Amino acid sequence: MAEVTCFDRLSTEIILEIFNYLLSNDLMFSFLSLNKRLNDTLFYHDRLLNNIQIPTRNLDFSNNIFQLIGSKIQHLTLTTKDLKILWNLLSNLRSLTISSSISLNCDHFYLILNRKQFCNLESFEMKSKIYSEEVYHSNDHIVKGTAFIPIFYPFNKLKSFQYLSTISPFQTVDDISGMDISQHLERLSLNLWEFETVYFILQYCPNLKELDLIVTIIDPVKVNEELDLSNIPLQKFSLTMNDIRCSSLMTRARYLYITKFLKH
């Protein structure tokens, strides 16, 4: 680590000004371990390294980096389907985004949801498609809601969960067992196959403040008259409808349906 660079001629203040314009990944791959002075600067100002994106390839190199800075990473983005990273080194992880262009197997996905580090997350954003080899649905663009049961475990600290993939919306989850009350969850963003699914999910989010939905099917006949949502402190509600049935009669019925939901 005796490499001398042009940066060594600059003051620490100027180096920090330069570093502030760079992403954590740029700093990690370009300057970490280059020489002792730059290393010390990065480690002392560890905010520069708290937002990391795992590269699509060369996961072994990333795991080696985790040995050095794992405890400093607070925000992590995964763009690879390989989720076998050294999770035990990410002791202060607070935010996780999974954004792989390749579909993830449910079993691999569970590797994350059942990790100790997942229980400490405050924000989880899922952008990838999930599939199961055990359950095949003719509409294979629909993801089984069971994949997300761990999100609602009571010992999780999640305040925000986002699943707005335009590829694979939730299927109706009325028959799911194992979900529990999620006291911490305040912001929820979901892509649902059917609007009625939200009635089921909201029963487990008593402190929800923001709800953002993308919905494929809205069936006005299936409104739940019995469910009382009046105790949920919802402050913001956003709805995007992808329902292709656009007759004027059906459109009016859908608006009445949404009105009933809001009155709950």
Short description:
The chain has 264 residues and is α/β, with parallel strands linked by helices. It is built from 7 helices and 10 strands.
Commentary on this structure:
With 264 residues, the chain is an alpha/beta fold. It starts with 11 loop residues before the first helix and ends with a helix. The longest helix has 16 residues, at 248-263. The chain is elongated and about 70 Å long. It has helices at 12-19, 24-30, 36-44, 59-69, 106-113, 197-202, 248-263; strands at residues 51-54, 75-78, 95-98, 104-105, 123-126, 130-131, 160-163, 187-194, 210-217, 236-241. The model is unreliable at 135-141 (pLDDT under 50). 25% of the residues lie in helices and 17% in strands. It has a domain at 141-264. Strands 1-2-3-5-7-8-9-10 form an eight-stranded parallel sheet. Strands 4-6 form a two-stranded parallel ribbon.
Number of DSSP E strands: 10
How far is the first residue's CA from the last residue's CA?
64 Å
**Arithmetic mean of pLDDT:** 75
Please work out how many helical segments DSSP would assign: 7
Q: What is the alpha-carbon Rg in Å? A: 22 Å
Query: Main β-sheet: number of strands, strand sense, barrel status?
Result: 8 strands, parallel
Question: What percentage of residues falls in helices of 4 or more residues?
Answer: 10-25%
Listing every helix as H and every strand as E from the N terminus to the C terminus, the arrangement reads HHHEHEEEHEEEEHEEH
Strand order of the largest sheet: 1-2-3-5-7-8-9-10
- Counting helices, strands and paired strands, the structural category is alpha/beta
Strand content: 15-25%
Low-confidence sequence ranges: 135-141
